[in-house]
Amino acid sequence: MTRVLAGVCACLLLLWTPACGGGKEITKAEEKDVLKILRSDKFEILDPQASSSGGDIAILAQMYEGLVRAPEIKDGPVSVPKWEPSLATDWKVEDNAKIYTFTLRENVKFHDGTSLNADAVKKSFERLIQKDHPAQPTKRPYATDLADIAKIEAPDAKTVRFTLHDSNPRFLANVSLHAAFVISSKAIDEMAKLNTPAKREKWLIENTSGTGPYRIARAEDYRGSESVTLTAFEDYWGGAPQIKLLSFTSMADHKSRREQVLAGAAGFTDTLLPSDWEDLKANKGVTLFTWDAINIMYLAMNCDQSKNYPTKDKRVRDAIAMVVDRTPFVERYYGAAKPAHVLIPYTMPFGHPKDYKPKTDTMSRDEALQTARRLIREAGVEGAVIKLILPEVPRPYLLYPRELADLIRQQLEPIGLKIELEPRKMAEIGEMVPKGDYALMLLGWMGDNGEPDNFWRPLLDGVKNEKGQWQPSDNNLARFFDIEVHRRIEEAGREADISKRDKLYKDLEMWAHDQFRPIVPLLTAKKSYAWTSKLKGVRVDTGDQFYLDKAYFEK
Amino acid sequence: MLTYILRRVMATVPMLLAISLASFLLLHMLPGDPTTILLGQRATAENKRELRSRLGLDKPLPEQYLLYMSDVSRGEFGESHRTNQLVAKELRQRVPATIELAIAAMLIATLVGVSLGVLAAVKPRSLVDFACLSMALVGVSLPVFWLGFLAQKLFAGEMRLLPFSGRLDFGLWPTFSSDTGFYVLDALLVYRNVELLLNVLAHLTLPAIVLSTVPMALIARITRASMLETLKQDYVRTARAKGASPSTVVLKHALRNALIPILTAVATQFGYLLGGAVLTETIFGWPGLGRYVIEAIDVLDARPLQASVLLIASAFVLVNLLTDLSYAFIDPRLRKKEAA
């Protein structure tokens, strides 16, 4: 038996003669040409019009570009939204923000070799906004953001004109979204030949068709949520990138990502826990980049009068708002968060009333406790058991869901409310919200485009149902709707003058919370990226996105 | 023997059908709407309706099950709602990763576990026995996530001997594409490249060692107990009396006869590992079946879950079948009994 085994091993060794070659050709890249990027989230859908996850967008932003782009984060928040040229070098806003005309950049090539022109832009937008487009994507989560486009025209090869149904000064903000990244005309024609959206998506992954500095060079470079390798696009209009390969790997565990960046095994990562920031800052081999992101974490209180939850009584909502102390919440973030008292975060370019607090938030602790106890007694809900719904897993603005929910429980018990925590999956939460089957919910929101409308409309506004009746929007956790609030959101959203728009939103904040108190804003959390200190030229924009077209390794 | 094999194989068919039905129904009973996850927090009711219709989630449950089973009968498992990729294609990537890791871990666990068990049994109640038993106890007790992080920090972070995570350094090997799904085999037989092979093995080492600790400890304890029992047998005493060397007595006479319980333990543990080692795969960024299932559960992605449950159940059944058959190979008495 032993002899047979030895014979087999000897034969195998003889057969395997690596030194003599004979295997499939493979090349090894040089370390200096590769940036290894670890992402906390997965990459699954690499169609800009179909994707809504951060992991996908991080990759898409290296491969595709829009007409305008968000500005780079510099010192603190900007006072007005300032869109920068990208594929459009210039734009004109006419007819009270109803007509937008863009002049396109010259000499821009798509990855498939075709040139950027007005027809390509028109076709790309049509694929996003038309429900039954022949090259329809698998899903269109951002289609409603651009649904007000009535007509797209291409008067000449370098000019594209959008006519909207109504005036919309926020249109540029929406055009900066990743969903409005331009896909080549040739690619859209090819996708239209395929019979299912899934096949089209697969085709687009294997045939990257943007204008960005990187592309997927071979179908094998996309390995699902495991890893994606991007290759530099040598014909990029901004000049060929210096780093030739970007290797994206999905790594959910923050400890692993931190260790890999500290050890130099990875060159770039995102979302590190604030508790690790000091260590990372102290390490000379790592650059830690943190910024005040546009997000809010809040406690929503169900205002639906048709439900029998204690929170339908404003006295109960006021009492809860009075006794929530934000200090321990902020402490849990190791200083990487600031307390919030209104809906619009302080990081937003405008619409945030600085230093303003609703009346419930200005009381001393003792006064707040006494008043809250009285209100709860008057409302007749003393001893009521209230369920607090929270997400099972952390969110970028809610890093410690269970601990923070427990803090709320502890703070509400002294006023006579018994809080039961109920962690749920995000899919379940999404289903619960339109039904409104809960009293309290702890969650948050991340801004997409630097516009207050992007917070007010989904979170505290409503839409008309099939019967023409108003109902809270699907993301309106507080199930709150008031026609006057709706009117004021509409009015502010349509105001073209930015300083007047700013005032309208601020006035709305200073009125709505005292009047209705549907939510308790809790905090705005900072975000972070970390990269090897040898890496220079990284650009991070106010939309929380990083860009590597000008990045290089310092010698 | 053939009748026995056929009987065993046939018995698995209704079992797998029942598993497919149970997994299908259970998944549909779970609360939550997958379209919310797929579309993100910003989804409107209209977007959700459109997606539900495209995914076929608006069809009656029996129709959905029949569609699913018709896919399965063609060797397909439908499309993942989450990635829009064919589940069969995704499984072709995930399953080899899990099998490769499971084989490596079981090789380590079996070699070390059996050796420790034999050593402990040969010198019972000695210092060696105590040391081996302690190692086994530590192996069972150590939480995998803790050991994984420790191993990563020490061998990848401090000593920089091994990579932190993944199956290969894709950045350095940008043109690598797997023909077999098994990277070791690809490096060895397809590319025949020593440097690539070393990179693949380096990535495999830490997760395999970490994953092997629990099965290794169990195998060591079972080997010890089985060997202690066997070493008391008359034929072992006879072999010693005939002047056989201690190593021949232990390895040839005792170990072979002690193999059946050890083999059962190895097979059971291997079956578990085929189901995916979620923690190890998560810590080491290993793109295996365990992580695939967890990712699918997070977004209530039914097709990948149903396919994975079927596959894991089938793997268990197959491993058990092979174990039963191997008993006959190891123990000639069973062959004779079956023949009779």
Characterization of the model:
The complex is a heterodimer of chains A (555) and B (340). In chain A, strand 16 (385-391), helix 12 and strand 17 form a beta-alpha-beta unit. The N and C termini of chain A lie far apart (58 Å). Chain A is globular and about 85 Å long. Chain A has 16 helices and 25 strands. In chain A, helix 9 runs antiparallel to helix 11 (365-379), helix 14 runs antiparallel to helix 15 (483-494) and helix 15 packs antiparallel against helix 16 (498-516). The model of chain A has no long low-confidence stretch (mean pLDDT 91). Chain A has 3 domains: 4-64 and 195-270 and 528-553, 3-Layer(aba) Sandwich (D-Maltodextrin-Binding Protein, domain 2); 68-185, Dipeptide-binding Protein, domain 1; 295-525, Dipeptide-binding Protein, domain 3. Chain A is of the alpha+beta class and 555 residues long. In chain A, the strands form 6 sheets. In chain A, strands 1, 8, 9, 10, 11, 12, 13, 14, 15, 16, 17, 18 and 21 form a 13-stranded mixed beta sheet that branches. With 340 residues, chain B is an all-alpha fold. Chain B contains 15 helices and no strands. Chain B has helices spanning 2-29, 34-39, 45-55, 61-73, 87-122, 127-141, 144-158, 183-191, 194-231, 234-241, 246-274, 278-283, 289-298, 302-330, 332-339. The longest helix of chain B has 38 residues, at 194-231. Chain B starts with a helix and ends with a helix.
